[in-house]
Specification:
The chain is mostly helical. It has a domain of 215 residues. α9 runs parallel beside α16. The protein is globular.
Length: 592
């Protein structure tokens, strides 16, 4: 029998990584004009709706795709193909039920959440995004199954389709909504049912519905991704042959499989749920504590952010949402590297589960070390570069729209996240690897401790007028440090893997520091001596200096990485045409 085609850990991760990059590029194309259209206040409504959406989404499906991927990969490694098929059938029914319940629950919680966070205008956006839970659950039927078969391409392509749908539908619908609201204002009519007397009040009335239109784009994007997966499965199926099915043992009963799926999924879902609920509580609490800080000392807040508040034409009643929206702008970048790292975590689940099922210790070691090393190879330079170029990056993307006023507030927040992003990038794949080896309770405990610490820190710091929104950064970093510490200790203890710290961490860090220094120095020099174009134009000296600095930093990082032999042969061998690449690098003694 011919060897089954499947993707290695890094090969699968590479496919997901490319898809994630495309999704992020599409997301930037989506969020940048969206933020410029609906403004920082509108982003505040949009993100507040997302914060209630995420925990319900997690309840509905977070643990099941992981459980399906793990169980299918184990059965495939053992040659139990009929069990793999049965897992798909059983999980389909479970996903259908949870998706329906998730949709209903979110609709029921829309008003209580908005009232609790003192943000009733968020309700339209919550209603618009709610159906995406149902369609995401249906997508996960196929994604979890294909990932268990170690085929990451279906997940990757569906994510791109989903992002494209969100981009097209979200931007068009938001633009139409804003145009409709402004037409009402220009004609002297009430704007979405509200009587307004000036343009600031008009935008204040429009933004909640523009945010809802953008959220509806998210729902329509999930429909597009689901259609692709459904058609793919109908055409190609799972490629398990009739001979494999005939020669495999009788599968377990559907009730037993359902129990095993749910048994494994519960701690996984609970872990994600705790984190999502923490973010929801955090969102409500941060906004309330921001209001507390503003009420305590409004003159101080205005002295800290007066120029930004004036530039953004922000009413006193919207200062809280403005600051929360400014913080939200940093999350687009803070989450970029961890989201890329998630590709490695998703790919590690079936690879590590299969190795753990057949007790292949060497494969376990290679998988664990490769995941950690590759994440640090990416997150160290990306994070440090993000930190030293935080202001020019934000100016490049937001200086010509409604969010320009928030740049001075967002810059130090983004810099702080840049220097610590490697901690966040490691946490999710670490959780995935623990789940792959049958330790889902460890991430649950780590998340509980970390989430508690985050809530406490944020409550104390955000309510201090002189600290305000900056306190949310400290709480987030403390949370991830705790999660990573507990998870890494347990992973090493359980697997017995001894990590080569010099190869995995020290070499990439040294190269990343050189990369960051190169980015900072080159930008300062170029920005000083180049001078052309106005600040309102897309192409000007500051833009060119930013791009050139990023390019110089990337070249410096790659050269230094080769010189210190920071790339491992095991990692290269798992890539497409890895043997050929490894031989070339070995010839010049560039492999560690």
């Amino acid at each position: 029998m011919a060897k089954r085609k499947s993707q290695s850990l890094l090969n699968g991760a590479l496919v997901l990584l490319v898809a994630t990059l495309l999704v992020k590029i599409i997301g930037a194309i989506y969020k940048i004009p969206l933020s410029n259209m609906i403004g920082t206040v509108g982003r505040g409504y949009y993100d507040a709706a997302y914060n209630i959406y995420l925990p319900i989404y997690t309840i509905s499906m977070a643990g099941l795709p992981v459980a399906v991927s793990k169980m299918v990969s184990e059965q495939m490694a053992l040659g139990h193909y009929r069990d793999a098929r049965m897992i798909f059938k059983v999980s389909s029914k479970i996903f259908l039920i949870t998706g329906t319940l998730g949709l209903i629950i979110l609709l029921l919680l829309a008003y209580p959440y908005a009232a609790l966070s003192k943000n009733l205008p968020t309700i339209p956006a919550i209603i618009a995004i709610a159906p995406s839970i149902f369609f995401c659950c249906l997508m996960s039927i196929f994604r979890g199954y294909y990932e268990g078969l170690r085929k990451m391409t279906p997940t990757a392509v569906s994510e791109v389709f989903e992002a494209l749908g969100k981009l097209i539908f979200g931007i068009v619908l938001a633009k139409l909504t804003i145009n409709h609201g402004m037409a009402q204002f220009n004609q002297g009519e009430p704007v979405f049912g509200k009587t307004v007397s000036n343009i600031s009040e008009a935008y204040s009335a429009i933004f909640p519905y523009a945010a809802a239109a953008a959220a509806l784009g998210v729902t329509l994007g999930t429909v597009l991704g689901l259609v692709y997966l459904f058609i793919l499965y109908k055409i190609k199926g799972d490629e398990i042959t009739r001979e494999e099915l005939v020669n495999s043992p009788e599968p377990e009963k559907s009730n037993t499989i359902a129990k095993n799926l749910i048994k494994f999924a519960i701690p996984v879902a609970t872990s994600s749920l705790i984190f999502s609920i923490t973010n929801m509580i955090d969102s409500v609490m941060v906004q309330n504590r921001l209001q507390t800080a503003i009420d305590k000392d409004l003159p101080l807040i205005k002295s800290l952010y007066g120029a930004s508040i004036t530039m953004g034409n922000v009413l006193d009643k919207d200062i809280k949402t403005f600051l929360f929206g400014a913080y939200s702008l940093s999350l687009d970048f803070k989450n970029l590297v961890p989201n890329l790292a998630m590709a490695l975590g998703i790919s590690a689940i079936p690879a590590l589960s299969a190795a753990w099922a057949i007790k292949n210790r060497d494969e376990i070691r290679i998988s664990v070390e490769s995941v950690i090393r590759v994440i640090l190879l990416i997150s160290f330079p990306a994070g440090i570069g993000m930190a030293v170029l935080s202001e020019p990056i934000l100016s490049l993307l937001y200086s010509r729209g409604e969010s320009a006023a928030a740049i001075p507030i967002t810059t130090p927040i983004l810099a702080a996240y840049g220097f610590t992003v490697f901690i966040m990038a490691l946490s999710t794949p670490m959780t995935n690897m623990l789940q792959a080896i049958g330790k889902p309770m460890v991430p649950l405990k780590a998340l509980t401790v970390g989430a508690t610490a985050k809530i406490i820190v944020n409550y104390v710091l955000v309510g201090i007028p002189s600290v305000n929104i900056n306190g949310a950064v400290v709480g987030t970093v403390v949370c991830y440090v705790i999660i990573l510490g507990i998870s890494l200790y347990s992973l090493i203890k359980t697997t017995g893997v001894k990590i080569n710290v010099v190869s995995v961490a020290i070499k990439p860090l040294i190269c990343a520091l050189l990369c960051g220094a190169a980015a900072f120095v080159s930008y300062m020099l170029l920005n000083r001596f180049l001078s052309f174009g106005s600040s309102d134009s897309i192409l000007n000296s500051k833009t060119l200096a930013t791009f050139i600095s990023i390019g110089i930093a990337a070249v410096i990082y790659l050269i230094s990485l080769l010189l210190v032999r920071g790339i491992a042969k095991d990692d290269i061998l798992m890539l497409p045409k890895g043997e050929k690449i490894a031989k070339t690098l070995e010839k010049y003694r560039f492999l560690g």
